[in-house]
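Support request, please re-run this one:
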Amino acid sequence: MALFFAAARLLLAAFVGLSSMCYERGLATRFGDPGDWLAGEHLSCSHQRLQPGQLACAHRTLPCGTTLILENPRNGRFALCEVLDRGPFGAILPSGQWGMKIRASQPGDWRGVLDLAPAVSRALGHNGRERIRFFYQRVANHLRYGRELHRR
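Re-run finished. Output below.
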C-alpha cells in the first residue's frame, strides 16, 4: 500500500509541476526465482531476502527506495516497483562471452537496465527478458542517467 501512495504522490507532484519526471528504457530481466543462482542472499538496500509477491527491482544507480512506474510497450501493461537491490551486472565482454561487470569503467556492455522481481514481471506480463520503459522522480545527481520529461 505504501508503494501505491508513493506512486500517487509522484504522479501528483509531476502533474502540478512540483517535480520533474525522468524515464529510461532498455532491456529488463527477471531475478529471484527459486534456484536463481544470480539472486543474492539478500536485497542490498534492505538486507532482507526477497519475499514472494514483493514489488522490487534492481537498478545500478538509482537511490534505494526510488519508486518506479514501469511500462511494457509490447502489451501496454503498467506496474509499480521499488528499487531495493543493485544490478543487473550481467555483461557481454569484449571477447563476446557473458560475464559480470560491476563498474562502468570495466570492459564490456551491460545487458540490461533493470532486474525485476517475479511479482513485478508477472504484473507487467513480462517474458523475463524484454525491453521496458520506466518513469521516476528526478533526483538532482541522477539526472544524467535518465531523460527528463518536459511538460508542454
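The first strand starts at residue 21 and ends at 30. The CA atoms of residues 10 and 53 lie 23 Å apart.
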